[in-house]
């Protein structure tokens, strides 16, 4: 009874937020000032599409396959490899008839062979139609935590070390700058990050399906045993990681299962396609699902800035998780949840 | 059982916020820039004490009793009159053995006679000691909603029409500028407002006892029948306003009754005394209790700026009220609660 009351209170909250905000992002035809950005985006915690934010980067011209291949030479890099392009996602394993939070297989290879893999896979796509129908694995460079300075130092000079108006608005430098290179086969499942995120697309386009923190209750977060893809003769096996439970969101906004996840019907997605040359401001704690498309793969660079932990928004998310997942859904405690899960 | 779980979840939330923030306000030794103000105060929703914010106002020199008397001539003004200095507060009525939300008696008088009343009452205080022991009524000019332009147009030129760096930070002009004149007998009970509040003290000092929005659950908000003070031979009677119920906070942070309001023990007040020449930034939705002291009364001017309703903070407060007051405490719905209650 009381659980139903709690659910009703949250539904009312979700709708109130939706009524006050709608689902249209703010669009800047030119980069905002630090004050505008803080006032219109960061403070209200609202997404924005920003044009002309990095027109001056040499990377716009330089980052051809040839240039990248030349720059990276035969330096070994870490690549996420999956049978289906779904790294860090809740996945059903027919063998054990169980759902796992599955992490990708990480493979060391030269940039050269990464490009070859990407090329052949997109070749297959052209022949076989939809990305998912491809039989070869999906390869994705998606390293976080300052991977750019660490592994991509040769490319650093081609972009800015930070987003000037964002650093000024937040009064700090980015925690991490991340480099992303993949193709249409790679999709990122719904999750959130405790970062203010400036996301620049340099090749191809990315489509973000966004849900505000207020819609947490619509997303049915739950904990799943962790597993990892391991290559096998057949292709890939799922190898469980004993004892590790990961809280994650099971809803796929592209094919929502309303029978299993009924509260998802209250969610109202904001859908933003970020094209080459455009930047997305993805506010902290917003849930995001990301897919991508591009003839020759998709390249992006994003800047993670620490969110403001003074704000009640952060502890509020903890409260909401306890009320929704623990009390309404009777889940075990989610406090082990790392809030700095991988991002895309 | 579930109610206890909800309460435990909120207690954890209250403590998490306290651990992340503490109870020391930010102090600016000179006015902040719009960007600093937005970044350090408005965005994190944290109070600040600001020095030198209105050193340039003519009012600092001009506003003597003589000047005010001269300026206001015998123009009639509205004055809040109460037997005890408690306007807009939950008050026990021995006659009916019931608690009411009591509003002040409003009296029209000349500024001259207001000053005379104030003088005699503070005279009594000197003779009789504590303010509360005074037997004569308390008089307080506390008009909101742009009362300054309306009733105090003669004084408008002595102050700024807005707080420049605040208007720039929020991208709007103040909704209202309010003038306050009272003495130590007048106290404002705990409440919140949906405004970003810049509060300037021009004579005497005001002490604010503040609680963040996250501590709503500690304050035991409840609904009370409304009543109003009406003068009588004996002094004042409480005249109920039939059918009107007002949600208000009963806890008096100066004399907390922990037996009746046990959750108040989890609250951690931020106490700020704002002296002549200083300004308080009181963030939207912060609960505040205000007392004042000054030989010749206390004069203040405050600027109300609309809060940002895009932010989840506003609907969150509605959610919290439903969960705490309606579900935990089993109160009737508080949705009739006007969030733009009078402010001090």
UniProtKB/TrEMBL annotation, chains A, B:
Q: Which SUPFAM superfamilies match?
A: Clavaminate synthase-like
Pfam families assigned to the protein according to its UniProt record, in alphabetical order: Cupin_8 (PF13621)
Location of the JmjC domain: 139-320
Which superkingdom is the protein from? Eukaryota
Name used for this protein in its record: Putative pla2g4b
């Amino acid at each position: 009874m009381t659980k139903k009351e709690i659910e009703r209170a949250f539904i009312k909250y979700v709708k109130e937020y939706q009524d006050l905000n709608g689902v249209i992002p703010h669009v800047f035809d030119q980069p905002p000032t630090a004050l505008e950005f803080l006032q219109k985006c960061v403070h209200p915690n609202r997404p924005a599409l920003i044009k002309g934010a990095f027109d001056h980067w040499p990377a716009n011209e330089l980052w051809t396959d040839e240039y990248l291949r030349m720059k990276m030479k035969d330096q070994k890099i870490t690549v996420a490899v999956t049978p289906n392009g779904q790294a860090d996602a809740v996945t059903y394993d027919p063998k054990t008839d169980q759902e796992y939070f599955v992490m990708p297989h990480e493979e060391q290879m030269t940039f050269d062979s990464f490009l070859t893999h990407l090329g052949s896979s997109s070749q297959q796509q052209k022949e076989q139609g939809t990305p998912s129908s491809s039989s070869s694995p999906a390869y994705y460079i998606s390293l976080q935590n300052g991977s750019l300075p660490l592994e991509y130092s040769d490319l650093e000079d081609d972009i800015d070390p930070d987003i000037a108006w964002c650093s000024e608005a937040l009064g700090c430098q980015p925690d991490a700058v991340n480099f992303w290179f993949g193709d249409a086969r790679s999709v990122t499942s719904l999750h959130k990050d405790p970062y203010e995120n400036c996301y620049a697309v340099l090749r191809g386009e990315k489509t973000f399906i966004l849900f505000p923190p207020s819609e947490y209750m619509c997303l049915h977060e739950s904990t799943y045993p962790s597993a990892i893809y391991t290559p096998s003769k057949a292709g890939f096996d799922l190898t469980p990681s004993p004892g590790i439970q990961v809280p994650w969101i099971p809803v796929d906004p592209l094919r929502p299962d309303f029978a299993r996840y009924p509260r998802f019907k209250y969610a109202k997605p904001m859908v933003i396609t970020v094209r080459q040359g455009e930047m997305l401001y993805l506010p902290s704690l917003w849930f995001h699902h990301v897919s991508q498309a591009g003839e020759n793969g998709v390249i992006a660079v994003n800047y993670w800035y620490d969110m403001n932990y003074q704000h009640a928004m952060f502890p509020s998310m903890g409260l909401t998780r306890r009320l929704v997942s623990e009390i309404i859904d009777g889940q075990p405690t989610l406090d082990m949840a790392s809030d700095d899960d991988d991002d895309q």
